Amino acid sequence: MSQYYPQPGPFYPPEQGPEDDYYEDADYEYEYDDDEFDGSGNPLQRILIFGGAGGCLLVLCIVCCVLLGVGLWVLDPGAGLVATDVPGSDIGLSFDEPAFSDETVVNEQMVRLAILEVNRNASLPSIPPVEGREIIVVTIELVNLGGEDIGFNERDFTLLNQVEEAYAATPGVIDGALGRGILPPDTGLEGRLVFEVVEGEFELIMAWEPGSNVEARYIYLE
Questions:
Q1: What are phi and psi of 156, to 5 degrees?
Q2: pLDDT of 104
Q3: Residue 21 belongs to domain spanning
Q4: Same domain flag for 117 and 211
Q5: Which DSSP helix (H) or strand (E) runs through 195?
Q6: CB–CB of 111/143 below 8 Å?
Q7: Confidence band (pLDDT; 50, 70, 90) for 192?
Q8: Statement to judge: residues 116 and 194 lie in one domain
Q9: Which of 134, 125, 115, 126 is nearest to 192 (CA)?
């Protein structure tokens, strides 16, 4: 009597060979060797990952630069309005470091200021002499280097002593006084400023501040 042996079905595991990548455990479950997964991954996927990270870093740097520029403008709206290559735009910016009397200064409005002459101990018929007082007449030149009309006023000028006490200009007391008006583009003018100071005040510095939004300029008065 023959004994019946069931034939292997389609779900029986095939015979293992030396070239197979799987093996049979006690429960007839299939597991693959780990060597098959030792590769470094899809190259295209790595390129996309690294490219995306680099793009995010570039965008972050651009945003930081923009925010820095906006912050500087908010702190000082006038900063950068005068190019540093314009002669005279980077001198006379503070009382402690004034420009010399033979130098010209340029402010944010692109107006150039130069001192042409200083007359100390001047005598003017319109100002009676006072003991202990001295009259100083300063002749200046203003030139509009920009492309817009700029206003000027002799009251924008003061003389400062070493403790920064200010002497205001006395308007309308001399022929050729600077006065006030409008300076068109590419034009210039000369005008006189009159100051009455304590006699013997030396090392005076002339301050020029044509507006609250314009940084003052300082020129040493010899």
A1: -80, -5
A2: 97
A3: 13-75
A4: yes
A5: strand 188-198
A6: yes
A7: very high
A8: yes
A9: 115
pLDDT, tens digit, 9 for 90 and up, residues 96-112: 999 999 999 999 999 99
Nearest Cα to Cα of residue 187 among 139, 146, 140: 146
Q: Are residues 51 and 159 in the same domain?
A: no
Q: Is 74 exposed, middle or buried (0-12, 13-18, 19+ CB in 10 A)?
A: exposed
Single out the residue in 75, 93, 128 at which a domain terminates: 75
**Cβ-Cβ contacts under 8 Å for 24 (sequence gap 6 or more):** 13, 16, 30
Here the CATH number for the domain that contains residue 215 is 2.60.40.1240
46: confidence class by pLDDT, cuts 50, 70, 90: low
Of 75, 97, 113, the residue at which a domain comes to its end is: 75
Residue with tokens 């945003």: 63
DSSP string, 16-41: P-TT-SEEE-TT--EEE-GGGG-S--
pLDDT at 36 over 60: no
Tally of domains in the chain: 2
Within-domain flag for 88 = no
In the structure encoding, which two tokens stand for residue 78, read together?
Answer: 């006038």
CA distance 18 to 36: 16
Q: For residues 84 and 74, give the distance between their C-alpha atoms in angstroms, rounded to a whole number.
A: 20
Q: What count of other Cβ atoms lies within 10 Å of the Cβ of residue 112?
A: 20
Q: Which of 81, 77, 83, 91 is nearest to 208 (CA)?
A: 91
In this prediction, what percent of the chain has a pLDDT beyond 90? 56
